[in-house]
Amino acid sequence: MKILLLGATGRTGAHVLDCALQKGYSVSCLVRKPERLKQHPNLSIFEGNSNNPINLQNAMEGCQAIISVLNISRTSDFPWARLRTPKTFLSDTMNTIIGLAKKNNIKRIVLCSAWGAAETRKDVPFWFRRTIDYSNIKYAYIDHERQEQLLTASNLNYTIVRPTGLTNFNKNLEVKESENNVPKPNFIISRKAVAIFMVDCLEDSSRHHKTITVSNT
Question: Which pTM does this prediction carry?
Answer without folding.
Answer: 0.96
